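ok trying this again, last paste got cut off
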Amino acid sequence: MPSVYIETFGCQMNEADSRYIARRAESAGYAVAEAPEEADVVVLNTCTVRDNAERRAYGRMNQFKSLKDADPGVRLVVTGCLAEQDRDRMQRLAPHVDAVFGTRELGLLGDRLAEWEPVYREAAQARAPALEPRDDMQRFARGGAADGAPGAFAHVRAFVNVQRGCSYYCTFCIVPHVRGRFDHRPKAEIVDEVRGRVAGGAREVMLVGQTVNAWRDPADGSDFGDLCREIGRLEGLERLTFISPHPKDFTEKMLDDLAAVAALNPRIHLPLQSASDRVLRRMNRKYTLAQFDAVVRGIRARLPDCAITTDLIVGFPGESEEDFEATLAYVESGCFANAFTFVYSIRRGTPAARWEQVPKDVAAARFDRLLDAQNRVTRAYHDRKLGRVVRALVVGDSKKDASRVAAKATDNVTVIAPKPADFAAADGAAHRYADLPWLDVRIERAHVWGCTGTVVGAAARYDGDATAVPGPVIDLTATDVQSVAR
């Protein structure tokens, strides 16, 4: 059976696109591989929002050249925002790439996979079975993480696109140039997809759009609040969340709609970028700090337990010390449970790329100060979970320690705990926790990045009763016996 490997850089929109590619590949007869050296087609879904993501994508393309050197029949395919922006340039910088598909060509990519499948199927049938497993050192050296692979918990979360593109043209942002202007999916189509994903076992549905709350139904003009209300009424839906909204598109009516959705997760991501009105004007963000703060107060009034997270940019062209101090003061007020904070990154083709830049050392120093301030606020937010039992949706193995399980609380806080003794699935058997994906974790330590604790129960549904679970297995060969005795 031919196989495809998919690796993703960037935002939840790209993650949703990668899952779409995986579904198209599976319907065409491919298996989704967990490592690039196992695949006939390697798909790299790229991002160009920041320079670092662009450089990583080109580096990854060059790493994958060794796959084609070893087997010229392997196809390397690049898609995503960088593919849209650098279609011609990419062929010069990475001539070994076989095909490039822009952000509006995912359907065409699926068609090509279907066209290639018979050739790869015949080749797979003609190949002699491998006498030895693949070289693990080669896999280790290449690294990377597969997307769309049929893991035990892949079904419990669903990303559903409601909209593509953006029409707001922030002066720092490349998205409208590489994804185009707003293109809203019809409400009926979105609701049908959510209904199908819930029927397939999804416990949490994330609605995804570049400016998700600007969505409008092309037929009847329904807004995002109307959409969330309708989805919230679907039978079997457990949790609903969305990303990323724009502050200017939240209305009083929309906030009322969201507050009426019982399944809504208690977390809203609200990108601020800067707390200086002067910088916000230069960014073309279309709101002032006072207008942003009014949205925050509107959320607090209706959803008092809701965590608000944000995006922040420091060192934007023209940012003065006074501008930065305004952002620092707003962060120190404790508004945000967490923040994704970045030093401004020049994006080719955007207005801000042509403006006088803040010196790198000044931007870096501001970044450190802002990060320290937000880290203190975030740590205090996580400290409030100490001693509580938090219900969190399983993700899978912890990336840093396979003996631990990772999960996400409904406010998007990462929770890590030792695996219960019965966590491992028997060979060939369905994973027990695929049917009990909600973990009750007693929080014992708080960190800036999240919380750690002990799994004390597991439930099939978010609002269901938990089943007791066995404690973790203690490896005495790696543990101080005296500390265990204590």
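PB: full thing came through this time. Residues 360-383 form the longest helix (24 residues).
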